[in-house]
Amino acid sequence: MPYTVHEVAKLSDVTIKTLYHYQKIGLLMPESVAENGYRYYGDQELRRLQQILFYRELDFPLDKIKAALDNESNRLQCLREQYSLLKMQEQRLKGILSTLEETIQHEQKGVPMNKDKMFIGLNKKEWTDALTEQNEHLQKKYDYQIDTSKIDADTMNQKAKEAISFTAFMANSLKNGVSVEDKSVIEAIDKHIQFMQQDMSIDAKSFAAQTRFLMTDDFHRKMIEGRQVGLSYYICFAAESYAAR
Question: Smallest Cα–Cα separation from 63: which of 74, 55, 54?
Answer without folding.
Answer: 55
